[in-house]
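ok so heres the complex, two chains, lmk if somethin looks off
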Amino acid sequence: MKSLSTSNRILILIAALLIIPAYFTPLWQISLWAPQYPEGLNMKIWIDHLSGNVDQINGVNHYIGMNHIGDEMFPEFTYLIYVIGVLIALGIGASLIGKRWSLYSFFGLMSLFGAAVLVDMYQWGYEYGHTLDPKAAIKVEGMSYQPPLIGYKELLNFLAYSGPDTGSWILMGGVGLLILAIVRDRFQKPVLAL
Amino acid sequence: MKKNVWLLAAGLIAVALAPGCKPKGAQSAISGDAASKVYVAPGEYDEFYNIVSGGFNGQISVVGLPSGRVLKILPVFSVHPENGWGFSEETKPMLNTSHGFIPWDDLHHIAVSTTNAEHDARWAFANANNTPRIARIDLTTFKTVEIIEIPNSAGNHSSPFITQNTEYVVAGTRFSIPTGENQDVSIDSYKENFKGHISFIAVDKETGEMNLSFQIEAPPFNFDLARAGKNKSHGWFFFSTYNTEMAHTLLEVNASQKDKDYIMAVNWKKAEEYIKAGEGTRKKANYVHNTWNEETHTATSTMMEDVLVLDPKILKDIVYFIPCPKSPHGTDTDPTGEYIIGSGKLAAIIPVFSFTKMLAAIEAKDFEGTLDGMPVLKYESVLHGEVEKPGLGPLHTEFDGKGNAYTSMFVSSEIVKWNIETLEVLDRVPTYYSIGHLSIPGGPTGKPHGKYMVAYNKITKDRYLPTGPELAHSAQLYDISGDKMQLLLDFPTIGEPHYAEAFPASLIKDKQVKFFKIEENMHPYALKGIKDARVERKGNEVHVYITSIRSNFRPDNIEGVNVGDEVYFHVTNLEQDWDVPHGFAIKGANTGELLIMPGETSTLKWVPDRVGIFPFYCTDFCSALHQEMQGYLRVSPKGSSTELKFSTGEVE
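and the predicted structre for the whole thing:
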């Protein structure tokens, strides 16, 4: 079993520790601008709650029949804290084991987690944008209001933006360190056993 | 020959019919870049907030400088049906006085709060001239939040003037009147029975709340504009007086007889010492104190019982008289506090007094006599100098902080710039027409902001498109940043601006309240959400707890009200966003509408006078579905037993 260098093991440890900010920084943000909202409306998704102009966003969205956004809309808020906790533990474990397979496994796990988050966000966005109250006051034929997954999209008089926030960037930085560790490990000179 | 005769005839006819040509006088030529100096591009802001008195409209207008655009009309002493001021149950107590509810007054002057003689712009103070009162306006919400009545006063013209840290707002009575127990005296007993009262209203440093601390009983003169001493002369106050002849009839003639009236110098720090030592008499006086509570969104009116009066005839060293030519209209102190400028409106000179010399004269007892035991200082001993031939009818003086003074001339319709030290006239510009006050941003403070100057005129005539016989008052904006004054803009104003103060927008722009937090709403009939919206009956009173949010009222179907019931609509605006007010009105109500700000609760009282179905609706365009924001109320005959019902949104 190939052992990793100490420096690479430290990289894994740092990557694991960089998941910790996910507990106290926002993970995702959605912003809306319109002519009559020059200052913009902003919503932040954290590990277990929402913050920002949620009430105002609900206020404007109820005309087109969109569901009410609240903490209860996201079952993820109940279990994400545990999932993240497990990831950190596994990362620390991978660092302690210090073998090539533990590095690859941890990296694989993190990538899977990232993909799962994107799929989950897309599904939420789809539901939110397509589940419209048939008694809504304003109905635009054939129109749905799925927010973009990442990036900008125009929806009626609003410009919407969706993208990662601080916690996610830090986390991605951590994954970057894992990639660095993998690359270093592949190209480093074999350790002479003395 | 015949041709020449015809030509001559034609020439003579032309001359006879041609209108008289006015010789080209000193017309103020607008230089090329005036437009760019006053243009505020879309998306940008004015540099200064200009808080302008409305005079006989009883309001304040808020104007942006340099564009001259009106930003807001702020009701103070006059009812304002547009937003329910003086009509809603919560605001009515603000206009209460010892004479009962009064829906109007005459608002002359503004004072913007200062600390260390510099604008801090926390509050603006305004006076009511007719039924003497002082109002305080909160400059984070631009609302009138306090009004205090002034006893023993009549014609509250000599107000409001503030001391340099806004310790006091001072109000001098314009008319002397009899006070105390026996006020039923013959008018010609003026000299014996009439008195002038100067009121010192203390202002709480933190909250701004006013309290009538004490009054000084002065001789029966007429009191006109005053200024606090500042910096050097902090601790003193200077009042212009006229009618020291003590006439009570045909003042036009009888009050213009004496060659000199007085500037009354009051040492208020000394007065404070006397009060601390227990001096002064508490005299019975009924006057009302009204305060607005922003947590309960309601006003309360309290009747006060007495006031502390100091008699300067007995308590020495509080009052001194400085002779000042010919019925002065105003007294102004320069930014350093050293120079006291009197404007004798009927004089041909502007006298400038020196504070240092005044103190020396008092020290050396350099008196020309006494008035009821109060010293009258020698004119020459206090005088710094006179500005010769400045113009006709000097009224008011403001300062640019660079050692220059600017005085308005009512009769010659101009503003004259002069150097305070050298007393030399430097420049003059015409105003259109007959200027009263002028205003320089920060002009009356120890640190004027300078840059611009506004002339507020009394006569408009041909300045703008004519609009019937009643015209808006005119104002002109000048650039005073250079050596010569330059006319930039001419614009109509709201009401009759007597005076205004301006300060940099940056002082308060980012402190503005955008909406009220619904959790902090302590109004007794407030609703925090839609679930408690309801109607309750208490005898013949019906209380409707109603919410408003884009775009509905809850409840919006109400039954069980009878003719003659007192119906109170307590409307809470549940919005928590910027610029989303809702209005409220119901058919046939004998009152103005409600305009409720987000997070606020406001009450409209209605007594239905007939049977039927009455619609109510939101009057302020709030959303795409504003037209759908309505409700119906059923009124049954008096004494009927229709069941009290209320609901919103039954499924069709």
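quick notes: The radius of gyration of chain B is 29 Å. thats all i got rn
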